[in-house]
Amino acid sequence: MTEAVSRPTLEAVAALAGVSRATVSRVVNGGDGVRESLVTRVRRAVDELGYVPNQAARSLVTKRHDAVAVVIAEPGTRVFADPFFAAQLRGISKELTAHDNQLVLLLTEGRDDHARVARYLAGGHVDGALVFSLHLDDPLPGLIRDAGVRTVFGGRPDWDEGDTGGAVYVDSDNRGGARAAVRHLVGLGRTRIAHITGALDQTSAVDRLDGYRDVMGDADPALVAESDFTPAGGEHAMRELLARRPDVDAVFAANDLTAMGALRVLRAHGRRVPEDVAVIGFDDMAPVAEQTDPPLTTVRQDIEEMGRLMARLLLGDRTPANRPEGVPEGVREGAAEGVILPTTLVRRASA
Fold this sequence. Notes:
By secondary structure, this protein is of the alpha/beta class. Helices cover 44% and strands 17% of the residues. The protein has helices at 10-17, 21-28, 36-49, 55-62, 76-79, 83-98, 112-122, 140-147, 161-164, 174-187, 203-216, 231-244, 256-268, 286-289, 303-315; strands at 67-72, 102-107, 128-132, 151-154, 168-172, 193-196, 224-225, 250-253, 278-283, 297-300, 331-333, 336-341, 344-346.
């Protein structure tokens, strides 16, 4: 049998440091009013004994859990296959780690999971929630509002103010990035420019479609094919476009994965890229954009930085007058307070 190893107690730290238990409690829980000399003695005793604060007891004192829920409104098969989510989670994790906070990942495989997520958030297990990849008919905003949890959203919201109480969000300039991509294609002399959309129940896809239309105006509706941000969706949409408009000479895809699928179909149909059809994606995810054949011209958004800013806004004071250090000035869109990050066109061989 293995003997249980006793954990150092608060009383043991107090005895070694020669101070009261209350003084140790204030030091380990980040309280004020303790002389620096005593703080040094307590910390030395903590290190010597290997004392680890009891999180449950600490939460009773500080009213904080040092944990943040990351809620992704997508099934796990999508989240773990798409490098977009990996980059955003990496940024969130770096920021939370820098503030000694734990990341709790919650995925929604289907409608039954929404109530489960809402119950967890309402149960007081975390200090706040970072929520992204929401769809327009998603009940999560209302459930999160009812849970009373401090929240920052990834992506521009498009739901009623009553569902969020005035949302705080981080997004990229999707519409401006789309305009830059299509203008580049026009500048190359392309005249039959198609667009493969993302999932149009998400604001990022709608904004990118609007950016395409800003430049193309009254382009033939047959040049727009709806997709879902996946390679398979890009393949299907590209086949549709070639069937409807075999004379297409350029494609702006809503993301890099969609563009990758389109490139496969173009190659299978004997179309040269960029000689016959120029292709541009969106995201600039290196594992995709740099590995396609040819390498993909794309619109870069700083996905990892989006994640960091979401976490920074959640952990700090989110009001414009007290914006956390390192968070750029946001823009007002109705009742929502947003931080919009710029996008840039990255030119490679596909366009």
